[in-house]
Amino acid sequence: MIDKIAWLYIKDGQILTTRSKGKDAFYFPGGKREGIETDLETLTREIKAELSVDIRPDTTKPYGVFEAQAHGKAEGVVVRMTCYTADFLGDLKPDNEITEMGWITSKDTDSVSPVDKLILADLKGKNIIR
Q1: Is this model's pTM higher than 0.85 or not?
Q2: Structural domain contains residue 130
């Protein structure tokens, strides 16, 4: 099981995604926990490293937990994505391993990982994204 934390940032009916160097799919920003980090510590560290912004802890809200086959991993390897929404301080810009940012809707399932497809469907079902 791969344990990941993701940030769901929604604006104008679209959701922010990122693509890392050498990857063929877009992913919601976030990443793997290091050691005994809390979800908030992981989220804050990963978003700062990937997008150069500071998550505002007082605005962080849990969205949900989703599980699916891990993209690019052996069959049966599952990723558990714990998702949060939050406001931030700063200007969004790709940093470190991130080469590209993009805004997608529920129609863009071909460009994302299996777990992100589940999240897109959930967001669309709740009329949060287009």
Answers
A1: yes
A2: no
Q: Is 105 within a domain?
A: yes
Domain that holds residue 107: 2-125
| Residue 7 placed within a domain | yes
How much is the pLDDT for 23? 85
Residue 45, classified by CB atoms within 10 Å of its CB into exposed (0-12), middle (13-18) or buried (19+), is: middle
> Can you list the alpha helix ranges (DSSP code H) found in the chain?
39-51, 114-125
pLDDT digits (tens, 9 = 90+) for 24-33: 889 999 999 9
- Residue 27 domain-assigned (yes or no): yes
> For the chain, how many structural domains are there in total?
1
Query: CA nearest 122: which of 71, 64, 49, 74?
Result: 64
Q: Which has the closest alpha carbon to 26: 100, 97, 105?
A: 100
Half-sphere exposure of 49 (CA within 13 A, CB side): 13
3-state secondary structure of 120: helix
Q: How confident is the model at residue 22 (pLDDT cuts 50, 70, 90)?
A: confident
Supply the CATH number for residue 19's domain: 3.90.79.10
